[in-house]
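note to self: the first set is below, dont mix up w the second
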Amino acid sequence: MAEGYFLQIWTGKLPTEVLSEIVLDRVNSLRRPSTLIGGEVGEDSALIDLGHCILAVHSDPVTEARFHSGSIAVDVSSNDLAVSGVRPRWFILDILMPGGSLYSSLSSIVESASREAERLGIEIVGGHTESTPGLKSPIIIGTSLGCTCRGCVYPTRNAREGDIIYQINPAAIEGTAIISTDFRDLALDRGVDEKVLERGSEFIKRISVVNEAISISELGLVDAMHDPTEGGVIGGLYEIAFASRHNVEVYLEKIFVEDETIMLSKALGVDYTRLISSGTIIASVPPYNKRDFENHLESLRLRYDAIGRVLNKNENPTLIILKGGKHIGDISSSPKDEISRLWEEKI
């Protein structure tokens, strides 16, 4: 890396090459044989072989939401385990509050997280809480843990050439909920109807995909699943490409969203394909499992579409973007999330 890189600043996820060099190359200097997957770009969970089971662990911060941040922390962390094929059982909750915060604000976050964890059957087993000088808004960090059997995991790296890429559930569910609450005033100023914002704020209840992902994984019809968070569906597809070392193509017009997402995106100038998308599952499915996979999704009454395909192996993989059958661009690094951009503009 050029020395000048160390003087650059950034918002949101690190570019892939910077993440690899500054962070992953250093933290992965020690790797035990029992660690099947550690810190790697695109992987949803660390997987550790304990002998009698595979332990899955994932940690995620909530930094781009102010409302419902407690429940979001539970959902985004537990989703990552579930798409790896592991049901989350335990949760560690860390809450950093701005200096001078009211106890009532902390209570609201804890209550929100506790309700969602109980709903999903997840036990909160510890964490840390403090008031931190210099913070402008709370930062909530959730860590989920769970165990499963050998051969029951579906890491992102397992996507294979020829696989069909499916989108399950509309994209940008989480992003729509955040915009409808945290950016409500801006949306109203841009002419968005209050009823649209009310409906969009209800999307918070649709962020968890734990039960859907576990149901899908139990059938063994997928090669890989992934939870697209920052960077949206486009970011999630690039991470599949990077982790599996395969080129991937996406059919942009096939990425589907709710009407509320379209209206908010147009009003705020947002690209919903790159908008944080907890609530969506991306699955990589062998063609010979296509019929059984689609039948199962229909039995669960889930919306889905085939939005892409896994192509040839490539040590420097690319996400190839097609629209109407025409090549319109390539992605070779994690894209910036649209929520990060909105916060930058707002601040």
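second set (the one i keep forgetting abt)
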Amino acid sequence: MNDQDLLRYSRHILLDEIGIEGQEKILAAHVVIIGAGGLGSAAAPYLVAAGVQTITLIDHDTVDLTNLQRQIMHQHASIGKPKVTSGKETLEKLNPAIKVNALQEKASASLLNELLPTTTVVLDCSDNFTTRQLVNELCVQHRVPLVSGSAIRFDGQVSVFDQRKDDSPCYACIFPKDQSFDEVKCSTMGVFSPLVGIIGTIQAAQALQIIMDIGQTLKGRLLLWDAQSTEINQIQINKQHNCPVCSIKN
């Protein structure tokens, strides 16, 4: 780190649990964020502000007026732009020293197979079951830690699936791939604006803890946030030894 870095990140460095060593780990990290919507808009700025030097944003969508109620990485002038382009502009203004790879496409197996060998941690900030399952499968295969979040109406949830640990469950241990349910989206169900900020910033915090290997992450726990009652609950989750995704990993 140079003198500017020491000054910029001094409030981290003052923390005994982080220090210079922890900050250097943050600077060296590569974080992949799937989705530049509500959750991604909250998570990405904090990761960039904290010093993550390489961020890869993946999202195929463009900014719409209805997004601006909660997706704070985008501005009114960004309407019609690709979300990853708008996000890149915001993040580079926040921290000019970082590199943002803006990929306007859907997350695919081929893309993730290309990215994950050099990825420190993945944040799943997507909004559909199919993408979550795909991201989970590829993170299991590449043994890359996954921080998964979701938010709808007033309810949010977040967990960590860390396949570097043999006892860690994966997303499919809780939500089996063959599970049948009705997909719910905020476009039809609505979502409380600050909720995506709360869940997204928790995802960012979990990612930083993983990068620095400090504290206790949400591995093996599903955190549930009820924004109406302001209640937080946790559910213990265990690895399913018959899970078709993580029980057969190499």
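remember for set 2: The mean pLDDT is 94.
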